[in-house]
Amino acid sequence: MCPSLCLNIGKHPWNEATIVILNKLQKPNYSLPKAYRPISLLECTGKALEKIVANRINTDILKHDILPHTQFGSRPYHNTIDTVTTLVHHIQVTRAANCAGALLLFNISSFFNNLNLEQTAQLFHDKGFSIGICQWVLQFMSNHKAVLKIGDYMSERFNITHGTPQGSPLSPILSAIYTANLLNMTKKWSYSDLTMYIDDGVIYATSQTVNAAAIKSMKPIPQGSRVALPERSRCRPSQD
Predict the structure, then answer these.
(1) Beta strand extents in the chain (DSSP E only)
(2) For a 10 Å CB count at each end of the chain, is N or C smaller?
């Protein structure tokens, strides 16, 4: 089935994965679930189709300026170096104004696993993507099946009802579009701003004192968490 036909009829025919559970290195307690990492092994033909769709979406993002410029992940010609350069510029401006700055790093936990499929498809529609793309995204996110492999054990096939497949070329792009409205909200902030790299965020705030800047950097999080994040996802301080 050719990519154009898949998009025209809104169908993704390769939707099964094998989820392999791997040990994380040097964990103190392997009786805890978080000491393991699930890795999805996807059909190569399906990943090729997803890469083609990802390129088409990125072309539209670039042509129509769909994503806010404060989203540096999955955006053409943006990368982590640009993210750091933007932060350094903020710090330099703060010092030149003889003000204090506060930096809050956070990660949206369980983000990829909890994207709401109807809301994601609606966001694509709201951003002006074609009906074929919107239907394809909805079908891509709603019709996953998987088997779980732990050592020699292989589970029965089961359905995955939400989220995006780990390892899919599309997952970062879907997630970036999901947070676009959150980043647009931050344009109204005063003396603070938010930049993101997919599900990792940086809030930088300035004020006359360090304490005031720190308080300002923490205030926006609760509102943003309620409005623009998937269910069961939470903002947490970065651990890196």
Answers:
(1) 16-23, 36-42, 100-109, 144-150, 153-154, 158-160, 192-197, 200-207, 234-237
(2) C
